């Protein structure tokens, strides 16, 4: 306490002593020029203001930098959230895609040919049908009776004559062949439009297939595009045939894949069996240096064998036999002395396992068909099952059902149009495939004879829809609804559907020509039918095209 009082007193005394009024003369530090002091104070104030502005600018820059950093951090955070959302959408899209793919496979397996549920689509006429006048029932009935039935009445006699001659020719062929070295030929079978009773355009041609097998101890082992191994898209519908010994393991022994050495011997295969000279395989009609059956070699062998057989029996007949087409080696023609002729195709085939599916060496080609990959690739034909299916379904249809009539009329119209404007990518096989799909999709009562007009329109609409989508699936391949009575091989039922119109995607010129021909056929339909109809009601002559056909 005393120390504090002392400090206060000392401070007061010091202030009094230093006051300028006590020593005016000695303390002369007060400036005499007041304006100079004021000027210096203003300068100092200005410098302080500038310093304050600089500091404020620095603070503002720091705040802007901080905001920019915060905004960048926010953008990064948002991008992370967006990435998370995008990853979630990507995952969701993949799930949706997988679900669609699974649905597509189920649809193809079960519903790809179920067109019966598309009544709304089938009821709406497409662009090609606008302004088209469909002939009525009376005109169609008259046309069918006068033009179709009048030209198909002698088909039965022709089939009988050709089958009898073919059986005799094949019997002679067996007699001229070496049973120990040549292929073994079986009985022929009739397939196609002549044996399904819907062929309408002349010349009538019977299609006969002749199964053959290799001599003992060899056998055929086939592989199709749907057997598990990957085949290119242009090889779908084809297969290969390997010539093997009957006692050979189907999977192949390891001695065929590795070199055992001179002092080692395979206990399953002797040296005689494992070494096959190239000449031996060529004698078995295989492609050079392979074990695969060569279609060209087969056709050469078959032509030579048929020629020898005909030379043996020619004295029994009063006509000549010759090969008619170079691009179809099995095409034969019977020429009578009167000048008339009968054409038929006799084509060697190989049976697929124990079924009625056959590998055919040569198949009639259309402008739409792609080139065969190689002579070791054989096309598969389901003609026997197609004939059986039509026969089976016909038993359930009303009497005089119109399914064959529809196909005949459509085949006639298309053939007539092609004769006027040139060939198109459509074939009679495509038209028959359309009928098979509709036969399976529609109830039996819909094929009553009085519904000919409606069913013909259905076939045309379905064909237009297929052309628009460039999709017409093979009737049997991928069809899980094939009747069990046919005993159809399950491997083809489970296969991916085969699009017969796939070449349209690759060949735009052929597609455009085909569509134009189809549209022109629709516009000319009434005129084409009325041309071959004796009496045409006046009410149905309106709208008919006036140009000459």
Automatic annotation (TrEMBL):
Membrane topology term: Single-pass type I membrane protein
Mab-21-like HhH/H2TH-like domain residues: 404-477
Keyword entries, A-Z: Cell membrane, Coiled coil, Glycoprotein, Membrane, Nucleus, Signal, Transmembrane, Transmembrane helix
Predominant location category: membrane
MF GO annotations: protein kinase inhibitor activity
Gene3D superfamilies per the UniProt record, alphabetical: 1.10.1410.40, 3.30.460.90
A GO-annotated cellular component: nuclear outer membrane
Function summary: Enhances Ca(2+)-mediated inhibition of inositol 1,4,5-triphosphate receptor (ITPR) Ca(2+) release.
The family this protein is said to belong to: Belongs to the ITPRIP family.
Protein name, entry field: Inositol 1,4,5-trisphosphate receptor-interacting protein
Native organism taxonomy: Eukaryota, Metazoa, Chordata, Craniata, Vertebrata
Gene encoding the protein: Itprip
